[in-house]
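Recall that a protein's primary structure is simply its ordered list of amino acids. Everything else, from secondary elements to tertiary packing, is in principle encoded there. The following example makes that idea concrete.
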Amino acid sequence: VLTPSVLSSPVSSENFTREPTIPVLPTGDQVIESGPSNTSTPITAHLSLSKLPLLNETVELVFTFVSVRDAPGTNAEIILPSGSNLVTGELNWSGDLRANEPQTLRATIQFTSEGNWLLEAKASRPLEGGDSWGDAAYVYLHVSEEGSYEGFATLQPPSPTLQEIVPTPPSISP
């Protein structure tokens, strides 16, 4: 459920279905949100942009992550694509994530190249034996000087859902 001030993502304690509350940017310009997390771990991640940026325009990126259980030694990071730069803010966090106490990384970024770009943010807690709890959030965008939009541009038209089948006329033998 998304409201102007809160995003609730179902997660539980036994099979992680409790609902932690994650703050989101206020509405105004078109806020771009990562899709809802369908995680089966205690950690939930959420990524948003304050607006759709044009080429060379700055935009605020907010990564919020929360756990329904204490998660000591959690590491979180925002991964910027090659066509963007960090202007201000933080892209990494490490620490003890307390149950139901969200942490937030905020950064101002700028896209310096046109194209299709993936913004990725992930939070994980390492466990013994090389395993981990974690979640990731993604935002896909196409950025250009004339206009930007959520999703990727493609050079090929979409595949038709229905195809017209034209029967081949029977061949006539002489």
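Residues 1-28, 156-165 have pLDDT under 50 and may be disordered. The longest strand covers residues 115-126.
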